[in-house]
Write a structure and sequence with these properties.
This protein is mainly beta. The chain contains two helices and 19 strands.
Length: 255
């Protein structure tokens, strides 16, 4: 049995400082483990990441407002939706399913930690994974989100035995999309170009879980998978005009 629920909340301030809050519950090998974490990146991309397995409640919505806090890390996050949620079942196999919930493609987000406050436009998602990650039919993932003035774009690309390529512009599924490491082509709806990219994460799964020994043992089969995450500027050129905002995107390489 393997089951993972993972919340992800991010924000980029107007000046480019970024923060990401995580909450996850993993059930595997007859045990349950809750993990909370936060990543903070400065203007140059220098990042600090901390995790704890000391319990904290899951993020919770009250109408269009999300609240979450972790006393062990002295961190809190709240988000107010500016665009509505949507969801997609990305994968179904004989082993289980992967359900992805975009809880807020565009939100006003505030993440606070001791002596650090990052506030601006952000994004919220939740993933429900019922398949052990080491048997997923994927070799590489590209994922990203862009927020601009009153607008949003989210994209997912899988490479491998079960290729997948999807994008949602302002919450609406795009019919034609081609996502690469530095651009997202939306066909007649326009294109997003990425520039001024700064790396804020570049580590294997095992390296990121160094302080969480029980989880390292459970996910040892994917410990060498490498995640690289960037903060970037993004310019959306669409029939209605041009908008510039902030991007957080990542690549995960199966090894």
């Amino acid at each position: 049995m393997f089951a993972l629920t993972k919340w992800y909340i991010d924000v980029v301030a107007e000046d480019g400082r970024a923060a990401i809050a995580y909450w996850a519950l993993l059930r595997a090998a007859g045990a349950a483990h809750a993990v909370s974490g936060v990543l903070r990146a400065d203007l140059e991309g220098r990042a600090e990441r901390v995790f704890t397995m000391r319990g904290s409640p899951a993020p919770a919505w009250s109408s269009d407002r999300l609240e979450w806090s972790c006393a062990a890390l002295r961190v809190s996050a709240d988000a107010v939706r500016a665009q509505g949620p949507f969801r997609r079942r990305l994968l179904k196999t004989t082993s289980g399913v992967l359900d992805w919930h975009c809880e807020a493609p565009l939100a006003r987000v505030r993440i606070a930690a001791p002596s650090v406050l990052v506030e601006g436009d952000g994004y919220v998602e939740r993933m429900e994974l019922g398949i052990a990650p080491w048997v997923l039919p994927i070799r590489r993932i590209l994922w990203g989100r862009w927020t601009g003035p009153g607008r949003s774009l989210v994209w997912i690309r899988w490479e491998g035995p079960r290729p997948l390529q999807l994008a949602w512009l302002d919450g609406a599924l795009v019919a034609h999309v081609v996502a690469t490491a530095d651009a997202v082509d939306l066909g007649p709806l326009g294109a997003l170009s990425l520039h001024d990219q700064v790396v804020i994460t570049d580590a294997t799964v095992g390296e990121q879980l160094t302080s969480l020994a029980p989880l390292r043992r459970l996910v040892s089969k994917v410990a060498r998978h490498r995640q690289t995450r960037w903060r970037a500027r993004g310019t959306l050129r669409a029939p209605g005009g041009e908008s510039t905002g902030w991007v957080i995107h990542e690549a995960v390489e199966w090894t």
